Amino acid sequence: MATDTAAPPASEGASAPRHTPPDVDVAALTALLDGKYAEVRGLVRTNLAEYASILEEAETLDRDAFRERVKEVVVEMASTGQTGMGFPEEYGGGGDIGASVAAFETLALGDLSVLVKVGVQFGLFGGAILQLGTQEHHDAYLARLVTGELMGCFAMTESGHGSNVQALGTVATYDVATEEFVITTHGEQSRKDYIGNAAKHAELAVVFAQLEVGGEGRGVHAFVVPIREKGKPCPGVRIEDDGAKMGLNGVDNGRLWFDGVRVPRGALLNRFADVSAAGVYESAIENPNKRFFTMLGTLVQGRVCVGGASINASKVALAIAVKYALRRRQFEASSDDHEELLLDYGMHQRRLFPLLARTYALHFAQEVVAAQLHDVFSGISDDEHTRRELESRAAGTKALGTWHGTRTIQECREACGGAGYLAVNRFTALKADSDVFTTFEGDNHVLLQLVAKGLLTDYSSEFSDLDQFGMVRFVAGMAVETVIERTNVHKLLERVKDLLPGGDDWDQEAGLMDPDYQLQMLRFREEHMLAGVARRLKRGIDNGMNPGVVFSRVQDHVIAAARAHVERLVLEAFVAKVGALPDGDLKVALNLLCDLHALSTIEADRAWFMEHGRLTVQRSKSISREVNRLCRRIRPIAEDLVDGFGVPPEMLRSPDLVG
Amino acid sequence: MATDTAAPPASEGASAPRHTPPDVDVAALTALLDGKYAEVRGLVRTNLAEYASILEEAETLDRDAFRERVKEVVVEMASTGQTGMGFPEEYGGGGDIGASVAAFETLALGDLSVLVKVGVQFGLFGGAILQLGTQEHHDAYLARLVTGELMGCFAMTESGHGSNVQALGTVATYDVATEEFVITTHGEQSRKDYIGNAAKHAELAVVFAQLEVGGEGRGVHAFVVPIREKGKPCPGVRIEDDGAKMGLNGVDNGRLWFDGVRVPRGALLNRFADVSAAGVYESAIENPNKRFFTMLGTLVQGRVCVGGASINASKVALAIAVKYALRRRQFEASSDDHEELLLDYGMHQRRLFPLLARTYALHFAQEVVAAQLHDVFSGISDDEHTRRELESRAAGTKALGTWHGTRTIQECREACGGAGYLAVNRFTALKADSDVFTTFEGDNHVLLQLVAKGLLTDYSSEFSDLDQFGMVRFVAGMAVETVIERTNVHKLLERVKDLLPGGDDWDQEAGLMDPDYQLQMLRFREEHMLAGVARRLKRGIDNGMNPGVVFSRVQDHVIAAARAHVERLVLEAFVAKVGALPDGDLKVALNLLCDLHALSTIEADRAWFMEHGRLTVQRSKSISREVNRLCRRIRPIAEDLVDGFGVPPEMLRSPDLVG
Fold first, then answer.
1. What percentage of chain B carries pLDDT values higher than 70?
2. Between A332 and A430, whose confidence is greater?
3. Domain segments of chain A: what residues?
4. A593-612: per-residue pLDDT in tens?
5. What is the ipTM of this complex?
6. Which of residues 480-519 of A touch B (CB under 8 A)?
7. Tell me, what's the pLDDT at B508?
8. How far apart are CA A387 and CA A39, in angstroms?
9. Distance of CA A362 to the CA centre of its chain
10. Is it the case that residue B58 has pLDDT exceeding 70?
11. Which residues form the signal peptide (chains A, B) (predicted)?
12. Of A476 and A207, which is predicted with more confidence?
C-alpha cells in the first residue's frame, strides 16, 4: 500500500513527481560501506561465519564454560591475523591501525563477548603496552600478547572512581632501597573493578596508580603487574569475580586488590615519564595535567572502537527488523483477502527508517574518525591540534553511536513483537551485551562534557590541559570570563550574532533537500548553543555564584551544545560522502537516506529551531511531511539497504523472524 | 550545590521566593499511594520479603530449576490468599477485584517471573474460566486453580497471529455424532506460541479457536482443553518449549499444536454463546463482531495489571538510581576537597526527576483505571458505555505505563554506570524481564489505535462493534465521512475551531503552575489532533485513495492523537488527586511533582504547541526553565519521594549501589 501504486493524493499536488525507486546494486553498496578495508572486513566476516556456533553457545553453556569458549575463539581468531592488525609487523601484527579498527567494528556483527574480549586483550591491555611502554616492554610482551598466548587486563577503573580517573586511589610508591614500586589498594573505593580478563584469564595487569616518589605525588601512571601465575593469584594480589552481568558473560570481569605488591622499576610504562634508579622523577612533559592527558590520549582507540561496534550492532538489529517486517503480515488493510505487510504501515516505516538513515550517517562519521585515528597514530598528521580534534571527535562519536545502538536495538526488538523476545532471535544478546557501551570507555554524558570543553577552550590556550573529563573542574577551577575573552568563544559570540533572526533569509528560501540548508541549520544550532553556554557560565560567575552551582545549572545546555556539535559532524560526513559519489542509482538511494537523516534530525529538535527563529511553523510542518514522504520512497529499497550492510546470514540467526 | 544554599541568581529575579523544602512524612506518603488497598499491598510486601531469595535464584538456578522454584513460590503465595483476591469467595477467593489488581501491581516490586506466572495462572487462565465460563466450569475448576493445584494456560496467540486475534487459524469443529468439538491446528502460522505455563506446568489450556458448527464459521470462541496428564502431553497434543527468552525465564512458555483433539461439548466456555447437542449455535449477542469483542472485553483485567506492574517496576529502578546518586560522588565541582554527589548535578536531576514525577502521575492514573475495572466487574457500574471507556483507558494506560517502564529502567541503569550492569544490582533482571511488557497483552501501537478508534466513533453508533484492534479495518471497511458526520467527531471539529489561534488568550495569561492551564493545553492538543486525523482520513477517502494507503499515511497522527488523549487522562488523575489533599507539606510535595510532570509533558511536545499557535517562543523557554527549577526544588526531598513507594529493602538488593 505505501509503495504508492495509487495516484498521488491531491494534497501533494497534482504535479507531484512520480519516483521510480533506484535500482540498488547491493554488492556495490557493501563495497562503498566497507571502503578501503574491504579485505580485512571480509576476513572477519569469514571468521564470524566459521564460529557462528558461539551465538548458540552463549545461551547453552554455563558461565565458566562460555568464558573458556570465548577465550578459545579469540585465540583462534588471533591466529588469522584479524585481531593484531594494529601492532607493528615485527611483533606479528599487521601494522595498520585503520585496519585494526575496521576489523573490530566488523566483529560487532557477531557475539559481543568475543568482541569485548578482543577489545580488552588487544585494545586495552595490548594498546597500553604499545602506547605507554617503550622498546623493552614491547620486546617483552607484544609478540606473545598478539597471539593471545599472554593474556592481560587493563586495571584502571576503581569501584569509587569511574570517569574521574585522576582521582583514583591505588598508590605506587617507589622504594629506592630495592628499586621497586610498591603497589597498594587504599580502601574499598579504590579496589579495581569491572576489569575484563581479571577474574580468570589475565596473567598481567596494566595497573593505573598514583605514583609517589620520594614522598611526592606525581599523579596517575601505569605499571605492568603480574597478577596470576598458573591460574593462582600472585602473592599480595586478591582477585574477586564480578559475577553475573547483564550481558557479556563470556568476559571474565573481576576486582583486584593490591597489598604491598612489589614490581621492579622497569614495570613502569615509561614512554612519557620515568623514575631513575636513584629515585629521580623525569618527564619530557612538565605540566602534570598535560602529562596525564597525553598518556590517556594515547588510549583513544578504545572509544573509536566502541562507537564503531555500536553502529554495527545496530545494523544487525535493523537487518532483522526490516526483514521481519517484509515477511510478517498483520490485519487486512487494503484488501479483504490478505493481511498487510508490517513494512507497508506508515508508523512502522517511521519507527525504522530514520534509524536506518542515521545508521548510515553514523557509519560514515565513524569512517572519518577512524581515518583520523589512523593518521594520528601512524604519524601521518600528529600535531597537538589534530590529536585534540581526534579526541573530541572520538568522544562525541562514541556517545552518539552507543546511544543510537541502545535505541535502535530496542525499537527493532519491539517492532518484532513477541518473537523478538525469544533468545534465539538475537535481540536478547544484542540488548544485554551492548547495554554497557553507553557507560564504559567513558560515560556518554561525561564524554559530551569533554567535547564541550574542547569547544569552549582554544586548543593552544593555557586551559587546554586542564581536566579532560571535567567541565566541572573547568568551571570550578578558574574565572570563566577569562576563557571567554581569550578564546574562540569570543569570536564565536560575534559569529552567532551575525546569524541571529532578522538576518538573512537563507533558511526560508532554501529547499529542504538542499544539503547546504540542512548543514547551515545544524551549524547555527551548534554555534548558538555554544555561545549560550558561555554566556550563562559567565553570568553565573559574574553574579558570584558557587562555580559548582553554576555548572550544575548549565549542565543540560553543555550536553546539548556538545551533542549539536557532533550531530553537525555526522551530517557533514554523510553529505560529503554522498556528494563525492558518481551519479547513478546508488547516489540516488544514499541521497534519500541522507535527506531523511538530515530532516529527521532537524525535526527531532524543531522546537529549538522555532524558539530561535530559524524555523517557521509552516516550514516545520513541511519537514515532518517530507520525512514521511522520504520514508515512503525508501520503502521499496529498504531490504537492499539492510542487505548492503553485509551482515553474514549466520549472524542474523532468528529463524522465526527472517527464515 | 544544587540544594541552593547560595542566593538565587539575578537571572531569576531578585524577588524570586526562597523555598523551604516540604517536610515529607514518608509513611503518610506510602499510605496515600497504597490507597484503599493498603492491607493487601502490605501482605504482598511481606511475602516478597519472605521469598526475597528468588532474586538470587533467578541468577543461580538453571532454567528448569528456576521454573520449578517460581512455581513453588507462586503456589505458596497463593496459600496466603494474595493471588486469589479476584475470585468469588465460594471458591476460596477474596471476592474483590480491586484488591486483586493491587496485589498484582505490588508483586511487580519483586521478581517478574513470579509476577508473570501469577498473571498467567490466575489472571489469564483463571480469568478466562471465570469470565467466559459458566457455573459448571466454575465448579469444575475454580477452587483447584485458586490454590494453584490445577495449573492452566491461556492459548490465544499464534505464531502468525498476534494482535489480530480475529484472524487466528486454529479450528474447533462441532461433531454432532459424538457431541464433541474437534480441535485442529492448521499450518505452522496457527500453532499457539509464547504460551505461558504451556511448556511444563499446565494441565489445561483455554484454547481460542474458530468455531465451526454445521459447516458454518462462527468466529473465535474459547474451549477448555486438557493438554497434559501426569507430565505427559495428551493424545493429539504436541508441545514444544519456547526455550530461552530475554527474561522471565522462570515462566515456561511453549508452543502447542492440536491434531484432531476431541473435547466434550461442555468444554466450550459458554457464557456468551453455546452449541446445543443437536448442533444449533446460540448466542444472546447477535452481531458476531460485537460478540467477539464482548468476550475479549472480559479479559481487560490483564491489560490493567500489566500497566500497573510496569509502573511499579519503574519505582524499583528509581529508588535504586536516586539512592545511588545520593551516595556516589564524582568530580570535585564546588570545592577542592570532596567530589560532588551525582544527584547534585543538574543533568542528573533532569534525567531522573521528570521520570519520578511521571511515575507518580501514572500511579494515580492507574488507580483510576483499576477502580473503574473494579466497578465494572463488580457490577457497580456495568453499562456498555462504561465498559468501552474502561477498555480504552486500560489500553492507553497499559501502553504509556509499559513504555514508561522500559524508558525509566534504561535511564536509571545508565545513571548507575558500570555498577548498574552487574546482575546483583537488579537492573539486569528488571530490564530483561520487563522488556516484553510493551508488546504483550496487546502491542502498544495496536492498543493506541484501539484508543483512537474509540475516540473517533460514537459508542452508540453502528461502528462501535467493528474490529476492536484495527483502525485499519475501520478505515478500510467503510466510507469514513459517514462516521465523521454521524458522530462525535463532527462536534469535535466544531469545538476545536473555537479553540484555534486568534481565540481567547488563556494560554498567554495563565500561570504555568496553574493546573487549569496545564490541563487546557493537553485538552487542546488532544482535540486538535483528533480532528486532524478525522480530516485527513476523510480527505484521503474523498480523493479516492485506497483506504489502506490512507490509513498508512495517517497512522502516525492516529497514534499521536491517542497518546495525547491518554496523557490528558493521566494528568487529570494526578491533578485531581493532589487537589483533594488537605493543605500541608505532603500536598506541597505532590504539587511540585504534579507541576513537574505537567510542564515536562508540555515541554516534550512544545514543538507541536508552537506549531499550533498555543505556545509562544518566550513561554516555551519559560517552561524549560521552570522544569529545571522544579528539579532543584525536588532535589532535597528526592529520597523521601522514592522511599514513599514502599519498596521492601530486600527488593532493592544492589549492595553496591544502595548498601
1. 88
2. A430
3. 26-147, 152-296, 299-442
4. 999 999 999 999 999 999 99
5. 0.90
6. none
7. 63
8. 28
9. 10
10. yes
11. none
12. A207
- Measured CA distances, B549 to A97, A323, B533 (Å): 50, 21, 14
Cell numbers given for A456: 569552549
Q: Out of B334, B414, B656, name the one closest to residue A547 (CB).
A: B334
Q: Output the nine-digit C-alpha cell for B345.
A: 548535578
Cell of residue A163, nine digits: 570517569
> Domain A299-442, CATH 2.130.10.10 — does that match?
no
User: What does pLDDT average to over chain A?
Assistant: 89
Whether the Cβ atoms of residue A144 and residue A100 lie closer than 8 Å to each other: no
Residue B403 at interface with chain A, using a CB cutoff of 8 Å: no
A133: β partners: none
Q: Judge contact between A433 and A539, C-beta under 8 A.
A: no
Task: Give the amino acid at A579.
Answer: G
Q: CB within 8 A of B307, min separation 6: which ones?
A: B362, B366, B369, B394, B397, B398, B399, B400, B401, B402
Scan for cell 551485551, then name that residue. Answer: A433
| All cell numbers assigned to A118 | 578482543
Which of A475-484 are b and which e, b meaning 16 or more Cβ less than 10 Å from the residue's Cβ? bbbeebeebb
**Residues of chain A positioned with their CB less than 8 A from the CB of B555:** 345-347, 350
Q: Is the pLDDT confidence value at B502 over 90?
A: no
One DSSP character per residue, A22-89 reads P---HHHHHHHHHGGGHHHHHHHHHHHHHTTTHHHHHHHS-HHHHHHHHHHHHHHHHTTTTT-TTS-G
Provide the terminal-to-terminal Cα distance of chain B, rounded to the nearest Å. Answer: 24
Cα–Cα distance, B345 to B367 (Å, whole number) = 33
A436 interfacial to chain B (CB closer than 8 Å): yes
Tell me whether residues B621 and A628 touch, CB distance under 8 A.
no
Beta bridge partners, A258, equal A237
Amino acid at B519: L
* CA-closest candidate to residue A199, choices A237, A249, A253, A148: A253
Report angle CA B104, A421, A71 to the nearest 5 degrees: 120
Class of domain B152-296: mainly beta
Say yes or no for a CB contact (<8 Å) between B424 and A244. yes
**How far is Cα A611 from Cα B497, in angstroms, rounded to an integer?**
25
* Cβ neighbours of residue A90 closer than 8 Å, sequence gap 6 or more: none
State whether residue B92 is helix, strand or coil.
Answer: coil
Nearest-Cα residue of chain B relative to residue A9: B543
Q: How far is CA A24 from CA A60, A637, B379, in A?
A: 39, 7, 61
User: How many angstroms separate the first and last alpha carbons of chain A?
Assistant: 24
CA distance A612 to B24: 40
* Prediction pTM value: 0.92
CATH node for B26-147? 1.10.540.10
Does A392 have pLDDT greater than 70? yes
